[in-house]
Design a protein that fits this description.
It comes from Massilia soli. GO terms for molecular function: biotin--[biotin carboxyl-carrier protein] ligase activity. Keywords: ATP-binding, Biotin, Ligase, Nucleotide-binding. Its EC number is 6.3.4.15. The protein has 7 helices and 14 strands. It has 255 residues and is α+β, with helices and mostly antiparallel strands. The chain folds into 2 domains: 198 residues, Bira Bifunctional Protein, Domain 2 (BirA Bifunctional Protein, domain 2, 2-Layer Sandwich); 45 residues, SH3 type barrels. The longest helix has 22 residues.
């Protein structure tokens, strides 16, 4: 992948870097955050120690996925970043739709294609010197899914062969442009600017679901979308409740 071509085609002022291999692009940018001069996109052709939410691993094969992280500084208190992973999901989904691939969103940080996971988002934060917060937005997206890798993952995983045929630089530029627009809008309006858009893409709207934490069922009910803070709305026997993002997994009750 060509960093200069991606930056130019995206039309953004984001510094773009490409490395052949690293352990984790998120870990790399977190370590470098104090010295970053501005928004920075780090793309790895291969990521050997990718991380997902709640300490899970993100497995990928060289050339068969996109793995990248975007460092973006917010002059906001940490609590006002609630909903950011969901806004990022909207940005990615809208960019893919423009490329001809329709996806849906699963609360709080997954993209689904044909009911299986296509991509995940991991956001980590670090206080910036002089004030503000660096958000390190990590994305792993499957393009092709070799059978042996799917066996290692241990569940059905989506792929997007159409995206795999696209020019990688053009695809990455489209994703970066959408992310930059989204993060600028989030800075101004927070998640309330995205809640309706997220709900239109909600994979499990109206479905019976269970909220799990470390395998224990916390709540069961009907998924009713998200509110303007990015909290999941769940219609339970006792009425509507809100569920905060965190180490909570959503599973269809049928599963």
């Amino acid at each position: 992948m060509n960093a200069a071509a991606i930056g130019l085609a995206s039309g953004t002022q984001v510094a773009v870097e490409v490395v052949a291999e690293t352990g984790s692009t998120n870990a790399d940018l977190l370590a470098r955050a104090p010295a970053l001069a501005g928004p920075t996109l780090l793309i790895a052709e291969h990521q050997s120690a990718g991380r997902g939410r709640a300490g899970r691993s993100w497995l990928s094969a060289p050339g068969d996925s996109l793995t990248f992280s975007l460092a973006w500084k917010f002059d906001l208190p940490l609590q006002q970043l609630a909903g950011l992973p969901l806004a990022v999901g909207v940005a990615l989904a809208e960019a893919l739709a423009a490329c001809g691939v329709q996806v849906q969103l699963k609360w709080p940080n997954d993209m689904l294609k044909d009911g299986s996971k296509l991509a995940g988002v991991l956001i980590e934060t670090q206080a910036a010197s002089g004030g503000g917060i660096w958000a390190i937005i990590g994305v792993g997206m499957n393009l092709r899914m070799p059978d042996d890798l799917e066996q290692r993952i241990g569940r059905s995983v989506a792929a997007a062969p159409w995206l795999a045929q696209m020019d990688r630089d053009a695809l990455m530029a489209a994703l970066l442009a959408s992310l930059a627009r989204t993060l600028a809008e989030f800075r101004q309006s927070r998640f309330r600017a995205f809640s309706a858009r997220w709900n239109r893409l909600h994979a499990w709207q109206g479905r019976l679901v269970s909220i799990l934490d470390n395998g224990a069922v916390l709540h069961e009910g009907t998924a009713a979308g998200v509110d303007d803070e990015g909290r999941l709305l769940l219609d339970c026997a006792e009425g509507r409740i809100t569920v905060l993002a965190g180490d909570v997994s959503l599973r269809t009750r049928e599963a």
